[in-house]
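Re: beginner question about structure tokens

> Can someone show what the tokenized structure looks like for a real chain? I only ever see the sequence side.

Sure, here's an example I had lying around. Input first:
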Amino acid sequence: MKRKTKVKSKLSVAFSTNFPEAYKKFTLKHVNERQGMPETVLAKPFRECKVALITTSGIHLKSDRPFDVDNPAGDPTYRLIPAAAQEEELTVTHIYYNTKFAKTDPTIVFPLPQLRALTDKGEIRSVADVNVGLNGGILETSAVEQEAIPKVMALFENEQVDIALLVPG
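And the corresponding structure tokens:
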């Protein structure tokens, strides 16, 4: 990580901590509010559903290439995380929040063991083998909207995912 990125990260964390409303306004200024989005009704009970996790916390396998936090527009790529991934195999690469605790306990931002426990209890059918880590804080959203999201949706459809839980970072 470049020195400039480290400074930017520390300033962002300090700004979000001390001025949460202003930070929220700044970070959401590029988001287009959509009206009239269709609602989705779950067609079957939870216990029959395959569930996937998707997060913008910057989580990825330690063996994966880290997200490009030096890119001023943000990194629009994604990382796949298998259902069997263990906590010690995961790490976080993100600059817009303090990742200290997420690196210590990745389940804070990616509750994969908790989801597997729901499978063991029969609360859900299974955890999808296609779980997705994204790096939030993407200021130029067109690449992620036009490339990454359609690919992730196709992966979820191919995996026959019934529910995708979004865990923000």
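Each token stands for a local structural state, so reading them left to right follows the chain. The chain is about 35% helix and 15% strand.
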